[in-house]
């Protein structure tokens, strides 16, 4: 990681293309992971359209919509952070990454309240209340918890990655000449956003 | 090694472009909520997916700089998407004609 000293730099020039390509390859495996969940969703939607409608009705569009705005804005802030760093505005880049971290936390707090409300109503995997519901609704809520849970873990990981990059920027290890770590962290963050772009309409808006 | 114009280090995307993309994403989010309130039957799911796909194109092209990457990145992206589409397609062959 810390090969940014001049001597090391000459001996091991950083391969930006390779670094970014590696990150993209990792992201493709993530797409296939979430793709599996979307296949489950599609197959069960086809089997239980009514149950899915009833399930989707019980999710709060304001929570989902609010979190969509939070994630889209956090994607903007990290994209702007890269531009700022490329232009040599280190302080501004650090602030923008900080904004992204706060947005990530905000998303998770929203998610916490949202899940808490559902769990208080007795809706969580293998709860008594859920077992009494029709088959379609049971499947809907199980996939809902699986998908948003896996996505939530990605948000949490992304938040820590952003904190780590913020520290690297502060230490000068990520700087206007060497910023591929920020770019790759940004790519990961945008993927988290991309997955939410599909989760939101499929789970919250289905009527 | 890589003294040829820093070509692989990346294009600088201006703030204005990023903010316009963000505004478009917010507009599409409002649109997807609005469309979901109209009952179109099965068309609702296709409208939702269509809007989500166009949002993805915006995020991938501009926020993720894919528009400015070289052909190898685009080729890899195509392969990943075709693989995913094949998975989904074959699953439906099984589910629908069982």
TrEMBL record, chain A:
Keyword flag Transmembrane: yes
Alphabetically ordered keywords of this record: Membrane, Transmembrane, Transmembrane helix
Membrane topology of this protein: Multi-pass membrane protein
Keyword Membrane: yes
PROSITE patterns reported for this sequence: COX3
Localisation: Cell membrane; Membrane
Stored Pfam families: COX3
Bilayer-spanning residue ranges: 21-44, 64-85, 92-109, 143-167, 187-206
Cellular component, GO, one term: plasma membrane
Residue intervals of the Heme-copper oxidase subunit III family profile domain: 1-207
InterPro entries named in the record: Cyt_c/ubiquinol_Oxase_su3 (IPR024791), Cyt_c_oxidase-like_su3 (IPR000298), Cyt_c_oxidase_su3-like_sf (IPR035973), Cyt_c_oxidase_su3_a-hlx (IPR013833)
Protein name (database record): Cytochrome C oxidase subunit III
Taxonomic source organism: Geothermobacter hydrogeniphilus
TrEMBL record, chain B:
Transmembrane segments: 12-35, 41-63, 75-93
Topology with respect to the bilayer: Multi-pass membrane protein
Cell compartment(s), UniProt: Cell membrane
Pfam families for the chain: COX4_pro
Domain of life: Bacteria
Protein name: Cytochrome-c oxidase
Keyword annotations: Cell membrane, Membrane, Transmembrane, Transmembrane helix
NCBIfam families on file: caa3_sub_IV
One term under GO cellular component: plasma membrane
């Amino acid at each position: 990681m810390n090969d940014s000293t001049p001597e090391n730099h000459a001996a091991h020039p950083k391969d930006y293309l390779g670094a970014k390509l590696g990150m993209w390859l990792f992201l493709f495996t993530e797409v296939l992971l979430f793709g599996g969940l979307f296949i489950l969703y599609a197959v069960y939607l086809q089997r239980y359209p009514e149950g899915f409608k009833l399930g989707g009705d019980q999710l709060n569009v304001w929570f989902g919509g609010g979190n969509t705005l939070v994630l889209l804005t956090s994607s903007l802030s990290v994209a702007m952070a890269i531009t700022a760093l490329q232009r040599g505005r280190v302080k501004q880049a650090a602030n923008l990454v900080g904004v992204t971290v706060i947005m990530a936390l905000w998303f998770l707090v929203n998610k916490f309240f949202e899940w808490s409300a559902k769990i208080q109503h007795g809706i969580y995997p293998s709860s008594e209340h859920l077992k009494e519901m029709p088959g379609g609704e049971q499947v809907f809520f199980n996939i809902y918890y699986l998908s948003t849970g896996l996505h939530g873990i990605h948000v949490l990981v992304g938040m820590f990655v952003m904190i780590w990059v913020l520290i690297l920027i502060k230490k000068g290890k990520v700087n206007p000449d060497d910023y591929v770590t920020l770019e790759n962290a940004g790519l990961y963050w945008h993927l988290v956003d991309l997955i939410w772009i599909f989760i939101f309409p499929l789970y919250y808006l289905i009527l | 090694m890589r003294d040829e114009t820093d070509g692989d280090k990346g294009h600088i995307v201006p703030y204005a472009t990023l903010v316009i993309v963000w505004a478009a994403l917010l507009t599409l989010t409002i649109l997807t909520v609005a469309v979901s309130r109209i009952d179109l039957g099965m068309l609702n799911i296709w409208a939702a997916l269509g809007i989500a796909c166009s949002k993805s194109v915006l995020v991938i092209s501009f926020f993720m700089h894919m528009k400015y990457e070289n052909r190898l990145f685009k080729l890899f992206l195509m392969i990943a998407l075709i693989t995913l589409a094949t998975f989904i397609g074959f699953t439906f062959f099984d589910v629908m004609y069982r």
